[in-house]
Design goal:
With 782 residues, this protein is of the alpha/beta class. It is 38% helix and 20% strand. The chain is globular. This is Bifunctional protein Aas.
Length: 782
């Protein structure tokens, strides 16, 4: 009996203690909501996330301040409150805090709620300013909405209104690590997806405070540059592309993965099997020790074989150098020498067409047909069909690949001189692939028409690695100008994505039937400026509107893109602006500076374009002198003239090399060229070839004015006086008008194999036409 009473007494004591704790918790929740909520959230957040602060010394310890930060997920506000050393009062959309519990949470941190009406907005701004005067930290997400693509969106002017009449610092921040979480819009949806990591590493980058009068575009630039710093420092998180390709091909299984115009069709597992066999044969029969031969030359068109050889080199952890087969043997041999290439992998059929004389051992893939041993075949079957992906990755040593290991050497187009070997790392290309995944959102339902050569950085990064790792099928053809074959392939395989240049699209308009492109959903163009009329013409004929992107070989190559209309998930903010080349991809920052003194230009002001981010090349192979000229403090000097508008869209207005200084004024070649092209464009009823480049503006030295414009044009009925009159009517100043004797008719305009204008060839041709002796000197020095 005594024992029973003791038990009952113990229970009453326990219940009393629980009751006291409950009363205490309720009292705390009522009397000190902030402490209560923080006490609840801290252990939960610490369980799900690890946190790190970079630049904490930049955060004011006392006094008022405005915090501006990127907005990638629903949890960003709570996470910032958890990570910041001081409490911050957020100004947020009150529509997200309708329920009583949500309002309680908002009140716990003195959150300033703002409804979508003028009076409420005015009250919120007034409360924010008062908070700053009272020494509070006021935080705002200037984008006004969660990003749907990972890109930093335009900043709204509300932050400048809060600062009006105050004298407090603006603290830029970037929260890294939440894109890809359940609470972000990665994979095209919130919440309903598997988290990428069980416990995410979050890093809050705090930048140097800006003055209270900093313009909105400078605030955005500061946040974006912190984002670039974050992605550069965290580049080891980038997926290892060879591992990704193993998983993608295994996932594709017996379904077709790749096809080409020679009739070859292979499934995902057969691609993996053949590539594994090819790798073993190359290692045994051809390749030297990796230390003696780290770089291997590849001379193949975009094809199933070209894909397999490039992936085999990645499995072998060698650097692939896809060589430009549109140049001469002399140029090729200079590339081979600069990269230290000892072997060039190619095919009999291709060499018979090209007739190159190379200073390297030429290895013909056809010679390997009878060299696959039984052991090679068994290994291929085991790797492709039996081993799990993680086992195969370990056996191949792919987990040992470091983010800064070289994946490829891509030679520049040579449009301005001798090609340079651009060294691109695994992280460089991987960043581009992830950017394509986020923006264009390629998946297993897509069929990508691979017409860009793999020696072109766009073709290598996108139509090879992005296509093979993100799930689409790849359909390849070696000649992008062969419109009839391109149309047949698109129709046969129901292509959904086309990547090309405006020059290529012009040819397709005339030679491809609308039904052949009926399945097209995305068309992205780059390499040259898209003429305004081509948007309308292409959409009218094929029912899909192209979008422009921008990049250079040195930037792996993509910098920015307009989101294709059919892939857009934008709400509240636009994600494309026709005439621009889009917003920079996540992790990439664009800065526009004065070519004369390097001072930063404001929104909408033209200047020299600089880019930084994890996509910036490692350098030019063997040319540290040239590398140091274009890479300064982590920024790549593109040589392009551009501006960034107030919405964050990048506009390319010319190249530094495509401006002439005439009489002390900068004259843009492209502006003159565009107006001349409009006058020379053939009529729709004409049987002419409207895909051919008809006019080019270049320049030669001039003793009186510094330079003189020269116009190279195809035969036309219009004489120079008509063309000059048309330029005047278009509003061009007299300084922009080429002289009457500066117009030369030529059989063809110099064009590179990639479809881009050959700037050096055009200049040399102009010199030949005006002064043959000077042209010979230029060629000798080049």
């Amino acid at each position: 009996m005594v024992h029973l009473l003791a038990i009952q007494s113990g229970w009453w004591t326990l219940l009393g203690a629980v009751g006291l704790v409950a009363v205490g918790v309720i009292a705390l929740a009522i009397l000190n909501p902030r402490l209560f909520v923080r006490s609840c959230f801290r252990p939960m957040l610490a369980l799900l996330y690890s946190k790190r602060l970079v630049g904490e010394e930049n955060f004011p310890k006392t006094g008022g301040a405005v915090v501006i930060c990127n907005h990638a997920s629903w949890l960003d506000g709570i996470l910032l409150l958890w990570m910041l050393p001081r409490n911050a009062r957020f100004i947020v959309d009150g529509g997200n805090f309708d329920g009583k519990f949500a309002q309680y949470l908002a009140g716990a941190f003195d959150t300033i709620l703002m409804a979508a009406n003028v009076k409420s907005i005015g009250r919120a701004l007034k409360a924010g300013r008062q908070g700053l005067h009272d020494g509070h930290v006021i935080a705002i997400f200037p984008e006004g909405t969660i990003t749907r693509s990972g890109q930093l969106q335009a900043f709204r002017p509300g932050v400048t209104k809060i600062l009006k009449g105050t004298d407090v610092p603006i603290v830029p921040m970037f929260l890294d690590g939440m894109w890809g979480s359940l609470f972000s819009f990665s994979e095209g949806k919130f919440f309903w997806k598997w988290p990428a990591w069980p416990r995410r590493q979050l890093t809050l980058y705090i930048g140097t405070p800006l003055p209270v009068d900093a313009p909105l575009d400078r605030m955005r630039n500061a946040v974006q540059q912190l984002g670039s710093k974050a992605m550069i420092e965290q580049r080891q998180r980038m997926p290892k592309l060879p591992c990704q390709i193993v998983r993608a091909w295994k996932k594709r299984g017996g379904k077709m993965q790749n096809a080409d115009s020679s009739g070859v069709e292979l499934s995902g597992r057969m691609m993996l099997l053949r590539t594994l066999v090819l790798q073993r044969i190359l290692r045994r029969e051809v390749l030297l020790d990796p230390k003696q031969e780290p770089t291997v030359g590849i001379l193949l068109p975009p094809s199933v074989a070209g894909v397999a050889v490039n992936v085999a080199m990645a499995f072998e952890r060698r650097t692939a150098a896809n060589l430009n087969y549109t140049v001469s043997s002399d140029v090729l041999n200079r590339c081979i020498e600069s990269a230290g290439i000892k072997h060039v992998l190619t095919s009999v059929r291709f060499m018979e067409k090209m007739n190159f004389d190379l200073d390297a051992d030429v290895v013909l893939l056809e010679d390997f047909k009878d060299k696959a041993t039984l052991g090679d075949k068994i290994w291929g079957v085991i790797g492709a069909y039996l081993l799990p992906a993680f086992c195969l990755e370990r056996l191949l040593g792919l987990r040992k690949i470091a983010c800064d290991d070289l994946l490829a050497v891509i030679f520049t187009s040579g449009s301005t001189g001798t090609p340079k070997g651009v060294m691109l790392s695994h992280a460089n290309i991987s960043h581009n692939v992830e950017a394509i995944k986020q923006s264009v959102r390629l998946d297993s339902d897509d069929v990508v028409l691979g017409i860009l050569p793999f020696f072109h950085s766009f073709g290598y990064a996108v139509t090879l690695w992005a296509v093979q790792t993100l799930g689409p099928q790849g359909v390849y053809h070696f000649n992008p100008l062969d419109a009839r074959q391109v149309g047949k392939l698109a129709e046969k395989y129901q292509a959904t994505v086309l990547l090309g240049t405006p020059t290529f699209l012009r040819g397709y308009l005339r030679r491809i039937e609308p039904g052949q492109f009926a399945s097209l959903d995305v068309v992205v163009v780059g390499a040259e400026k898209m003429p305004a009329d081509l948007f309308e013409s292409f959409e009218k004929r094929f029912g899909v509107r192209p979008v422009e992107g921008y990049g250079t070989t040195e930037l792996s190559p993509l910098v920015s893109v307009n989101i294709p209309p059919s892939r857009s998930a934008a709400k509240f903010q636009p994600d494309r602006f026709e005439g621009s080349v889009g917003r920079p991809f996540p992790g990439i920052s664009a800065k526009v500076v004065s070519p004369e003194d390097g001072s930063e230009r404001g929104a909408g002001e033209d200047g020299l374009l600089l880019i930084t981010g994890p996509n910036v090349m490692q350098g030019y192979m063997g040319r540290e002198d040239l590398t140091s000229e274009v890479l300064q403090d982590g920024w790549y000097i593109t040589g392009d003239i551009a501006n960034v508008d107030k919405e964050g869209f990048l506009h390319i207005t010319g190249r530094q090399s495509r401006f002439s200084k005439i009489g002390g004024e900068m004259v843009p070649h492209i502006r003159v060229e565009e107006e001349l092209a409009k006058q020379l464009l053939v009529d729709d009823d004409d049987d002419g070839e409207d895909d051919v480049l008809r006019v080019c503006v270049t320049a030669i030295p001039d003793a009186k004015k510094g330079e003189r414009l020269i116009v190279l044009q195809l035969p036309s009925e219009k004489d120079p006086s008509d063309l000059r009159k048309g330029l005047t009517e278009a509003g061009l100043p007299n300084l922009f008008l080429p002289a009457a004797d500066a117009f030369y008719t030529v059989e063809e305009i110099p064009v590179l194999g990639t479809g881009k204008l050959d700037l050096k060839g055009a200049r040399v041709l102009a010199e030949q036409l005006t002064d043959p002796a000077a042209a010979n000197e230029t060629q000798a020095s080049g």
